[in-house]
Write a structure and sequence with these properties.
Elements lengths: L2 H24 L3 H6 L7 E2 L3 E3 L5 E6 L4 E9 L2 E11 L4 E6 L5 E6 L4 E6 L8 E6 L4 E6 L5 E6 L4 E6 L4 E7 L4 E6 L11 E6 L3 E2 L11 E9 L7 E5 L8 E2 L30 H4 L1 E2 L11 E3 L2 E9 L7 H4 E9 L4 E2 L5 E2 H5 L20 E6 L6 E5 L4 E7 L5 E2 L5 E4 L4 E6 L5 E6 L4 E6 L4 E8 L9 H13 L34 H4 L9 E4 L2 E4 L7 E2 L2 E5 L15 H6 L26 H11 L13 H10 L17 H8 L1 H9 L3 H4 L19 H6 L53 H9 L21
Antiparallel strand pairs: 1-14, 2-3, 3-4, 4-5, 6-7, 7-8, 8-9, 10-11, 11-12, 12-13, 14-15, 15-17, 16-17, 17-18, 19-20, 21-22, 22-23, 23-24, 23-25, 26-27, 27-28, 28-29, 28-30, 31-32, 32-33, 33-34, 35-36, 37-38
Helix pairs in contact: 6-9
Length: about 775
């Protein structure tokens, strides 16, 4: 070969090698490539997530059984475009997104599954898989490197561990109780097996040696276990606050300061004090214990846990019964940080009341803290008040305690927010609004709301049955208020509870949902005038197969309808209620059940739809059937649906009472009280689903078809009375007293006029009864 040619080839080879070497220097290593697919922060469960590039938001539409995908950023511009709404399982609750932003995982509470939703590629915005997990899955989140998904099974007391490569459950961790929220640490290495998984127990537990109902009797619980070995499971307890920052007048609980003597002095702070104005009696510091732990976030080595603080000691009054607590756990030592636990309401108390409360968020207390998130370095936190329709902005003070600062900053959201997510760059935040089917966009730099209701779903049309149910849910959950009437014609996004502030509670302090999460129970035993009473779940307030059949209310039958609890909004929660001020005089314990206002009627309607949670089923029920047959069957011989007239001791007692006799003498004729039902109860009927029969069976559906007859529970008494029968499985247009025919298949659509006829045709809407002279009680449940 010619020397010149050889030299030229050699030079070319050298240049090629050098070019390749230079290219290798600028290309990422395999480890660096993996880093691009790793989360930068600890992960957590939420109803709303932002993809890593801050461009897309995915949000659970619980009321539509769907997952919404929303584009929120294009370059430096805010854009709000709904890209898709993907049908998922029944009653979706939480969503997680993998580090690459290609897959979303949605827990479906009633279906007992996790829907796998594609966010990229040819299958984009479709469900590409369903993973069966335990009963009532709630919180879910992914390990930092995206290898495992952890799912909290709320009624099973377990955590499912899903391998994301095979998309199957590979292990199950037993934690007990009712696990709900999940958070996972992130040490930013390539190993997902060396992290710690934290799982909240939703309900508090009784402290050993303590007794109910006292403010210091219960404690919160968080479970922790390694993400790789999954054992041991460490139980971390969260102490009650000895002082919540509020005081109560206990003079009526001491022999020396009130007449007549109370039945007991167990709630008297100092039995030696004789002056009722003495601060030791009149300004007794109140405590509170953590309860309803539904959200969690980790920043640094701290786990932050917003919760609803419960204080069951008397007096039964809003500002000493529920609080807005945030507890803190050290993620390294797995111990609570008692010095850093706070009550956010104690800071709100110092605010000045606004001149126009219906146009200002100032001095709104933290009702039903439902969600929390923070920016990357943990210098800014957002904490959602579900009933208050806002998010607090918080930071850490010099001692590491969360503080709202001064002035307190709140961002107004859409109706009933249930989740929040802060962008990676810390410039934006997004809040999921459950009832409005919308997202609130917040500019954290300018400290303003960009858009309060960015649509991520389509709310029901005003005048439809679904709309009536949804507005009833809003009325139940709000701590602010709604109009008393005219709600059937109002789009749900057009109802702004702030404009009706003061109806549900004093300064948004409390709501029905604060003690009845999802219409169920907070598991707290409260001290009422008629004795210790645990909060009742409302899923059994109406018979599932016949909404005409309504149970007595409270353990002592002191109330008989949802309408009765309007006096609770007034006497306990400090509001004006939903039936005028002064209220309709026919509202009293065992008074009218409907017709007082649209707001109360629709709240009653929503309570009729409260779903009973799925529970783990035993493999063999023979022993239980035997016990039931020997001890219970003889007391329930009446054909389904059962009534309480024959075997209910409380019913018999009320029927025999003079008050009951007087009530019967004032009642309208029995024929007018008879109420027909062309409907049957089914939670899932408000939403159609294409799920298989097996999945439908898990969704809590009930048999279709009207009941054979309309039972009269506790015949002649007023404990279970005819109420609005507003839970149709199929469209219907007529509903009048004395008829019982089911709608035909060709029945036209349900209309507002027919619904109004139904609701207003109740004999109790006429106001014929005279109010009781007896002062309403103030029991909260």
């Amino acid at each position: 070969m010619d020397r010149a040619v050889a030299t030229s080839l050699h030079a070319r080879r050298r240049l090629t090698v050098l070019a390749c070497a230079a290219l290798l220097l600028v290309l990422p290593t395999s480890g660096e490539a993996r880093k691009k697919k790793r989360f930068r922060t600890p992960t957590r469960s939420s109803t709303i997530r932002i993809t890593k590039n801050d461009k897309l938001v995915v949000a659970v539409n619980r009321e539509a059984n769907s997952l919404a995908v929303l584009q929120v950023r294009k370059g430096d511009r805010d854009v709000f475009a709904k890209l898709a709404e993907v049908p998922v399982g029944v009653a979706p609750r939480f969503v997680a997104v993998d580090p690459a932003g290609k897959l979303a995982f949605v827990t479906n509470g009633a279906s007992g599954t996790v829907s796998v939703v594609s966010l990229a590629g040819d299958t984009r915005f479709t469900v590409i898989g369903e993973i069966p997990v335990g009963d009532e899955p709630r919180g879910c989140t992914i390990t930092p490197n995206g290898t495992r998904l952890f799912v909290a099974n709320h009624t099973d007391g377990t955590v499912s561990v899903i391998d994301l490569a095979s998309r199957s459950v590979v292990q199950t961790v037993a934690v007990g109780g009712h696990p709900t929220a999940i958070a996972i640490t992130n040490d930013r290495d390539k190993d997902d097996g060396d992290e710690t998984v934290f799982v909240t127990e939703f309900f508090s537990e009784l402290i050993p040696g303590k007794q109910e109902p006292f403010d210091d009797a219960r404690q919160g619980v968080v479970h922790a276990f390694p993400s790789g070995a999954l054992a041991p499971v460490t139980k971390i307890t969260l102490s009650p606050l000895a002082t919540s920052g509020f005081t109560a007048d206990r003079s009526k609980f001491c022999n020396l300061t009130t007449e007549p003597d109370p039945a007991s002095q167990v709630y008297c702070p100092d039995t030696s004090v004789s002056d009722p104005a003495d601060p030791r009696i009149a300004m007794d510091p109140q405590g509170a214990f953590p309860n309803l732990l539904g959200s969690a976030v980790i920043r640094g080595t701290s786990l932050y846990l917003p919760n609803v603080g419960a204080a069951p000691e008397p007096p039964v009054k809003f500002n000493v019964n529920v609080q807005a607590l945030v507890h803190v756990v050290d993620t390294a030592s797995l111990t609570e940080q008692t010095a850093r636990h706070v009550n956010l309401n104690a800071e709100v108390k110092a605010e000045t009341a606004p001149a126009d409360p219906t146009a200002s968020l100032d001095r709104l207390f933290g009702n039903d803290l439902a969600a929390i998130d923070a920016n990357l370095d943990g210098t800014l936190f957002l904490i959602v008040s579900r009933g208050g329709n806002f998010a607090f902005r918080a930071a850490l003070d010099g001692s590491g305690r969360l503080t709202l600062g001064s002035p307190v900053v709140r961002y107004q959201t859409g109706n009933i927010p249930n989740g929040v997510a802060v962008s990676q760059d810390g410039k934006r935040a997004y809040v999921n609004n459950e009832v409005n089917l919308s997202v609130t966009a917040i500019d954290l730099e300018a400290n303003r709301v960009i858009e309060r209701d960015v649509p991520i779903g389509t709310p029901p049309t005003p005048g439809t049955f679904a709309h009536a149910v949804l507005v009833g849910k809003l009325t139940f959950f709000t701590a602010l208020g709604t109009p008393n009437d005219g709600l059937l014609d109002m789009p749900v996004r057009g109802i702004e509870p702030l404009k009706f502030r003061g109806k549900a509670a004093d300064n948004a302090w409390s709501s029905c949902a604060a003690c009845h999460p999802d219409g169920l129970t907070d598991n707290v035993t409260w001290s009422f005038a008629d004795g210790p009473r645990q909060t009742l779940p409302l899923d059994a307030f109406f018979a599932k197969d016949n909404p005409v059949d309504q149970r007595i209310s409270n353990w002592s039958a002191v109330r008989g309808s949802v309408t009765d609890f309007n006096n609770n909004s007034r006497a306990v929660q400090g509001g004006k209620g939903f039936a005028g001020d002064p209220p309709n005089p026919n509202i009293y314990n065992h008074g009218i059940t409907q017709g007082a206002s649209d707001a109360l009627d629709l709240m009653t309607l929503w309570v009729q739809t409260v779903r009973t949670l799925n529970q783990p089923q035993p493999a063999d029920v023979t022993a239980g059937r035997t016990v039931f047959g020997a001890n219970c069957a003889s007391r329930t011989t009446r054909p389904s649906p059962p009534t309480r007239s024959a075997w209910c001791p409380a019913c018999r007692a009320i029927r025999a009472s003079p008050r009951s006799a007087a009530a019967r003498s004032r009642a309208t004729p029995r024929s007018a009280r008879r109420w027909s039902s062309s409907t049957t109860w089914a939670r899932s009927t408000r939403r159609t689903s294409s799920r298989s029969g097996a999945q439908a069976g898990r969704s809590g559906r009930r048999p279709s078809g009207p009941p054979a007859s309309t039972p009269r529970a506790c015949s002649g008494s007023r404990t279970t009375r005819p109420t609005s029968t507003m839970v149709p499985r199929r469209p219907w247009t007529t509903c009048s007293p004395g008829t019982s025919s089911a709608p035909g298949r060709s029945s036209p659509s349900w209309t507002r006029a027919s619904a109004t006829a139904c609701w207003r045709s109740s004999p109790r809407s006429t106001g014929a009864r005279t109010p009781s002279a007896r002062r309403p009680t103030t029991s909260a449940t």
